[in-house]
Design a protein that fits this description.
mainly alpha
Length: 206
């Protein structure tokens, strides 16, 4: 139980930092996003296993260093990551009759926003980090709102690693598909607040 509570505390705390101070802390945020995103991808693609997590962590470190020291690659990653987040939410509003075509939304938006981030870096750093942080905050807030009396059911007997991995998978998939309007509204509000805050801070400093 404790590992779930710690996760539910630190995830939105990181989300708030990214959402409201993303431009100031760009490199730590984009590196951590690359690292954690790689691990999550490996676990969802290859299964919940310590060896898979280890390989994901190794690749995550390599990707984090790459986006840190290759500036334009970091910008593209940030824009692409924001595009994937946006695409995952938009998919829930695309009619099922379209079929598998709706799965093109995340990669297409990732490509478009990645290219835009490289060309308009300052604006997209603020927008991308605001969206990244807002997506974390929105999912955790909505999860707590809908499941605050049922948190114990997300604790798995096979340990901390499995509990957090299953909860992360639920937040990334079932929670979004089951509550698209609530999550999208929260996401838009938090993204807007974060972007406007960062923009005001940039104007004060500039």
């Amino acid at each position: 139980m404790m590992e779930i509570l710690v996760y539910l505390f630190f995830s939105p705390a990181f989300g708030a930092v990214a959402c409201f101070w993303g431009k100031k802390l760009y490199f730590p945020i984009v590196m951590l996003g690359a690292f954690s995103g790689t691990i999550v991808f490996f676990l969802e693609r290859f299964g919940l296993d310590w060896k898979v997590a280890l390989w994901g962590a190794i690749c995550g470190v390599i990707l984090a260093l790459f986006v840190r020291f290759v500036y334009k690659a970091g910008l593209f990653f940030l824009g692409a990551f924001a595009g994937i987040i946006l695409g995952m939410f938009l998919m829930n509003f695309i009619p099922e009759s379209i079929g598998t075509i709706k799965w093109l939304a995340p990669p297409l938006l990732a490509l478009v926003l990645g290219i835009c981030a490289v060309n308009w870096c300052d604006v997209f750093i603020m927008l991308g980090t605001s969206l990244q942080g807002a997506s974390i905050i929105a999912r955790i807030l909505c999860f707590l709102l809908l499941n605050y009396t049922q948190i114990r059911q997300y604790v798995y007997a096979d340990g901390m690693f499995s509990s957090i991995a299953h909860l992360q998978s639920y937040l990334n998939h079932e929670l979004i598909s089951q509550n698209p309007t609530l999550l999208s509204t929260t996401l838009l509000i938090m993204t807007g607040l974060g972007f406007l805050f960062q923009l005001s801070q940039a104007r004060k400093e500039g």
